[in-house]
Design goal:
The protein has one domain: Jelly Rolls (Sandwich), CATH 2.60.120. Helix content is 3%, strand content 43%. The protein has one helix and ten strands. A six-stranded antiparallel β-sheet has the order 1-2-3-10-5-8, with no helix packed on it. Strands 4-9-6-7 form a four-stranded antiparallel β-sheet, with no helix packed on it.
Amino acid sequence: MLVNRLAEIEGTERDVGAPTFQSRRLLLADDGMGFSFHDTILHAGSETTMWYRHHLEAVYCIDGEGELEETDSGVVHQILPGTLYALDQNDRHKLRALTELRMICVFNPALTGGEVHQPDGSYPPAERTPAPAP
């Protein structure tokens, strides 16, 4: 059985910061679950362009207000607490945090924890991403 607590993840190698977000990675590939599970804060006023070419992602909003833009079509969806979206077609998208957003994210295949966004907004394929050093 695995038991992880957010307070124990914060400030470790599983607490990954970027200019627009802070991702606290509660489950990663080496946990053996087949998916990764993240508690992510997107900074108010930020916009993040993403395209998970090699991963499927489901995202559930716990707090805040934002907009999700489908990059290819321009369709915009309002994001509020209780909203779930699933990138089931490796969709290109932009997430705008109108206020601070707290999101729960699940990735398949699981992230290793060493990923950083590439210039196109994607993460590299799982088999090419080393886990962070302990």
